[in-house]
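Record minuted for completeness.

…
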Amino acid sequence: MIPPRQIRLDTLVTTKSELALDTLLADDSTFYGDLFPHAVQWQGELYLEDGLHRALRAALQQRNVIHVRVLDLDALIPPQATGPDTAAIQVQPPVPGQPRD
């Protein structure tokens, strides 16, 4: 549902701490998945959620732009909304027979 758009590789922040070389070198790494990496835009930053190996392959091919599907949370969540209002959360009664902290 989200169309891909061109993103510069140097604007992406990765979220993975490991890189699997077998996935990087596989010819069919996108056979069962989406052809485009997925990113989330939050507070002005683009976080690469899926597609690190595709982005790295693009970088190794000396491309500086790739097509990415971006979920823009900045557009969905107003900047003044910092989280749920805890006053609106109803207090649940304790479970009978359970010790209280």
Q: What stands out?
A: Residues 1-17+33-79 form a domain with the Conserved hypothetical protein from pyrococcus furiosus pfu- 392566-001, ParB domain fold (CATH 3.90.1530.10). The chain has a mean pLDDT of 79. The CA atoms of residues 59 and 66 lie 9 Å apart. Residues 52-60 form the longest helix (9 residues).
